[in-house]
Each structure stands twice: as C-alpha cells, then as structure tokens.
Task: inverse folding
C-alpha cells in the first residue's frame, strides 16, 4: 500500500503482514507488525473513519491483542508505537489522526494511491520474455558454433536475428522499467534493469565458451538464459508482494 502527502512531498509504502516500510524510497522497519498493519487498515477505509471496535476486530482475527475490555488502551498504544517508529525513520508528519469518540482516519493532506494489481503485474511482459527465450534456444540449436584462435566458442548468429531480438527485449524492458517510475521502487527498478542487461547479452548471442564442446555450449546456453528469466520474474514477484493491499476482514 502506498500513501502520499503532496503538501509535504512525502511517500510512505507499507507491506501487508510485514515490519518493512519505505519513506521516500528508503527502507525502515517497524518494531511491531501491528504498527504497520494499523496504518494500512485505517488507510484502507479512507475516507471513512476506522472505529476502535473495527480496528480491534481486524487485529484480533489474526494477532493476539488482548481483551475487548481494554481495546481502547490497546489501540492507542499501537498508534503511539507506530508514530514513534515513523518519527525515528524521519517522518515527523502525522499519518493518521484520532477522531475523538469515533476512532482513527488518515491525517489531513494524506491520500491512498491507486493500487497496481500486483497479482497481474507484467504477466504479458513475462510471457513475451519466455517466448523470446524459447525462440533464442531454438535458434541456437539450429546454428553452428564457431571457434576462434583463442579457443573461444561463439554462436554464428545472423545480424538480422540479433537486431530483431535486441529491439524486442528493448521494447519489453522499457515498458517494465518506465511503468515502475516511483521512488519506492527505485532499488527494485535497478535490480530488474541489471537482470535485463544480463538477459540482453543472451538474446544477442554474446555468450562465449572456452575449451568446450558444442553440445555443452548449447546446454549451458539453455540453462543460463532460463536462469535469467527466473531472476527477472523473482524481482517482479518481490514487487507484487509489496503491492498486495491490506484488506479489512470479511
């Protein structure tokens, strides 16, 4: 879940069921998972106010938070802890505020950003990457391997195929990287860029083998390009986890 405060130019990204959070792209940790969970639950009901009873019911369905007889004291304690964690992380702005006699809601100036559907993030792009890798493997199996004087082995790739593959991966990569252009995703964007750069060396057939048989070269190529796709997908799955919104029970 992402919250932003345009007036203060701040961004807060939270992860459901985790202590990790980001302020303007920098990673921090709550002392308790309840601290982040409370903020997410309150924000999920925005612009409505989350009553103390609703907050307590949300927590009690998953976490041991004590008796309903002490729900007000319990929730205020969690709110105080969350505020202290954010303050230690450098966020002095109040994110949620108390509505006397009613509960809590997002503080003035904060808004909940539209969620990207994490469960479908880059499905089309991943399918294109897998298809491109399959075509590269089939092409490698159909072309001769050449050896130079240094006993280095290369694929005898045709220029037009190399250019087509380069353009295709460039197009996929641009769509992925540009769509994640927000501060909270900077580390993940850089990771995906690195993985795509490695993949690019395979789709343009720059792989080099040394003192190796043609059969072993092709086998290594298949294994290594598949690993490249897995690495890109792993980075995307990590982002999907961060995009999973916190939802109220029921």
Result:
């Amino acid at each position: 879940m992402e919250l932003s405060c345009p007036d203060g130019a701040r961004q807060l990204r939270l992860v459901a069921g985790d202590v990790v959070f980001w302020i303007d792209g920098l990673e921090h940790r709550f002392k308790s998972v309840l601290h982040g969970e409370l903020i997410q639950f309150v924000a999920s009901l925005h612009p409505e106010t989350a009553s103390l009873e609703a907050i307590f019911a949300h927590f009690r369905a998953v976490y041991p938070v004590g008796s309903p007889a002490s729900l007000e004291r319990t929730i205020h304690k969690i709110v105080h802890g969350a505020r202290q964690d954010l303050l230690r992380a450098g966020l002095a702005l109040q994110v949620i505020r108390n509505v006397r006699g009613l509960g809590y809601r997002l503080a003035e100036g904060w808004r909940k950003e539209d969620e990207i559907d994490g469960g479908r993030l880059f499905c089309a792009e991943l399918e294109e990457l897998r298809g491109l890798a399959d075509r590269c493997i089939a092409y490698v199996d159909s072309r001769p391997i050449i050896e130079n004087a240094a006993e280095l082995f290369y694929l005898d790739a045709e220029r037009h195929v190399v250019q087509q593959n380069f353009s295709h991966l460039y197009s996929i990569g641009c769509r992925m990287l540009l769509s994640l252009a927000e501060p909270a995703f900077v580390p993940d964007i850089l990771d995906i860029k690195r993985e795509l750069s490695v993949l690019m060396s395979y789709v343009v057939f720059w792989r080099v083998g040394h003192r190796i048989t043609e059969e072993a070269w092709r086998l290594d190529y298949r294994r290594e390009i598949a690993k490249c796709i897995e690495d890109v997908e792993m980075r995307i799955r990590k982002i999907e986890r961060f995009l999973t919104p916190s939802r109220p029970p029921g």
